[in-house]
Design a protein that fits this description.
mainly alpha, 312 residues, single chain
């Protein structure tokens, strides 16, 4: 009973972070399941089955708060589902341990870029409102879906920073669109795992409590995203990306850092991250009229209206 309560709390916390920052549900939940002795395929299957419900609840919540760009969802969600199904059924036996450090370096660089860009300059408006092309989103979705299924998490950590770095849509719509499209990924991965390993290795009580915790957190997270200014949200997301990928690198065979080195690195990053968020809050307060969610939305609407063709 105690373990079920713990899993429910983990599901709540993981979805609160995932729904607010666009990543971490799969990584957090899978890590806990692996820590208590679940094999990798069963852990990933359990999490993806729970995510069918949590991502549906999250997508609906983000939609109600107008955090979703449905064109982005369509362009990235379907390729993501294909990648997730392939990873779960045919490729889940392949280890991603070798590729993980390489991917972490790329994501770490993106995270540093996002953290510096949003903290120092806020949401840059040069590309705001420009469409995200299918030739960019389709390969991104395919790769992120594959990583998500084989690694037990990765849809948000791969997709969110890549789209956020483009600067073409506001951060809240990046997060909302990634969360909404993850519903398709979760369904495809779950079907793949059920085909590949069957249902006998899956504890459906664990699925239920992870799902319950996530469903409760979903609307709270969507509300937070709708009201947190883009500058502060970008700094928060950037810090999460940096921290999670430094963790992956330090624990990889490439570095294999000691516990003391890891602790020092995490504390240093946490202090820098806290300082970055504090600076973003300070700058936001100095220029609320330009930095607020409402101001960004107004500018986006203005740009979209200017790009609409004039009736003959």
């Amino acid at each position: 009973m105690r373990s079920l309560i713990l899993l429910g709390l983990v599901g709540f916390a993981a979805q609160l972070v995932d729904g607010s920052l666009g990543m971490a549900y799969g990584v957090t939940s899978t890590t806990l399941l692996l820590a208590i002795g679940t094999n990798a395929a069963a852990a990933s299957a359990t999490v993806h089955l729970a995510e069918i419900g949590t991502t549906l609840a999250s997508g609906i919540s983000h939609w109600r708060f107008n955090n979703v760009d449905w064109k982005v969802v369509a362009k990235i969600g379907v390729p993501g589902a294909l990648g997730a199904f392939a990873g779960a059924t045919f490729l889940s036996s392949l280890s991603t341990e070798v590729a993980a450090p390489i991917m972490s370096i790329i994501l770490l660089l993106l995270g540093v870029y996002i953290l510096v860009r949003f903290t120092a300059f806020g949401l840059q408006r040069d590309n705001l409102g420009k469409p995200l092309r299918k030739r960019f989103l389709a390969p991104l979705g395919l790769f992120a879906g594959f990583v998500d299924a084989t690694g037990g998490g990765g849809w948000g950590p791969v997709g969110t920073p890549a789209i956020l770095a483009s600067g073409r849509i506001p951060p809240r719509k990046v997060i909302g669109s990634i969360d909404a499209s993850e519903f398709l990924v979760a369904i495809a991965a779950s079907i793949g795992f059920l085909v590949g390993i069957g249902s006998e290795n899956i504890n459906f009580a664990w699925v239920a409590v992870l799902l319950a915790g996530g469903v409760i957190a979903a609307p709270i997270a969507a509300w937070l995203v709708r009201h947190i200014p883009p500058r502060i949200l970008g700094s928060a997301v950037g810090g999460v990306i940096v921290l999670t990928n430094v963790r992956t690198l330090l624990r990889s065979d490439w570095i294999d850092a000691s516990g003391d080195v890891q602790a020092i690195a995490y504390i240093a990053i946490a202090l820098i991250w806290a300082a970055a968020i504090a600076w973003s809050v300070r700058e936001y307060r100095k220029d609320k009229e330009h930095e607020s969610v409402e101001a960004v939305e107004a500018e986006l609407r203005k740009r979209q209206s200017e790009e609409e063709p004039t009736p003959a």
